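Form 7-S
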Amino acid sequence: MRTLSDILDSWGWLYLTILIGLSLALLSFLLLKVGTVPAIALAISPFLLYLLLRILERPFLAFFMVIIVNYFIMGVTRYIPGLPGGIVMDALLLLTLFFALLRSRDGTVDWSNGRNSLTLLTGIWLVYCILLIFNPETTAENWFAGVRGLAVYFFLFPLLTVVLFNRYKYLKLFLITGSMLTLLAVGKALMQKFIGFDAAEWRWLHEGGSSTHIIYTGIRYFSFFTDAASFGCSMGFSMVVFSITAFFVRSKPLRLYFILVALLAGYGMMISGTRAAMVIPFVGYTFFIMLIKQWKVIIPGIVVILCIFVFFKYTYIGHGNNEIRRMRSAFQATEDASYKVRQFNQAEMRIFMKEHPFGIGIGKAKRAEPGDYMFGLPTDTSLVAVWVETGVVGLILFLLIFVVTFVKGAYDVWFKIENKRLRGVLSALLAGLAGMLACSYGNEMLQQFPNGPIVYICTAFIFMGRTLDKELSNEST
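Output:
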């Protein structure tokens, strides 16, 4: 008996053609009757039904959709005020989880891949954060608002990755999709720079964004991200990952494409004016040099990194350029006023954090009121936020996940992964991850879309290294 999947596969294009015709006819009719927005919503309903059927048969499509939406959701909220971006992501994640559980009954989805040390560690972290609802310093409302980005996403994204994206082809899909999204992000930033901001972006700037994005050093471009810092960090990550991956792909056109993506991502990082993002390539490439264990790469790599450091730290070459001048200021961070303010704020936090080993409560730091410990003290960075809200115990658990990821990933790259292409891609992910973690001390971006989920997905691919290597080995025999 033919399944729904067989029917959709054999007749998919016919169905799509019919749906397009019906939708256009329906749209034309409804535009005259009910208005633009309701007409569009009703007209795309056949596509949504078709998409739902496809996702029901292939849950990995749902997770792929989550990755795409994750990249754009905060930009969309700028154009649709009041749209709850976090709730949208929650709904999509739960829908993906539901489809995955539903298809596990017939063996389509194998949950055994979820039994690994990463799931264990993120599960412990999730349980710890759930227990913090009993912290008397916070409220259930604050806890619920904060625990999703802090713990739930960190558990669900890696879990769904190892369950639904557990083949090498999905790793390639993730990289290709990520490169295309990077190009779109850079393209939007270039439009802001050379064409100008649109109405929604000007409204956001006038409502307060201009204080941090139109400054004395020039304009900081933010693409469709929440802000320039999030955009800059994302571009720094893409620069590291795709520049390294480029040297480990067989196809010459694909290699040139990844190099182009990396160069454009680097330019995007520059025009974001995000000084903390400069840490990502420095830490990322240094980590990669340590992983590669090849003197022909190590020596030139160290020389290049030192030359770039000297260029920014000890010269004034290109100082007339706004982007270069702002990036250079990152190398004099200890003399920067904002750096001194952060140091002062963290000194104030240490006073009361000595008495709060389990933190002042999840969600409390961002919603402090007069009289609270954190009132007037912004956390500013991801690691400081974790420390304040979950305490030193929570910070240790949080960092332990990354430490284990780096140790296992490096060990696999050094001794276990036989496939050269896979070894290079995993090295790229580890390098990007190292840069992002270092950057999270200077910026609060691990609990933001899209950077946080992307980092969490990368940890899952790193943990799947041996499984993917075995798959590639079996295919070559």
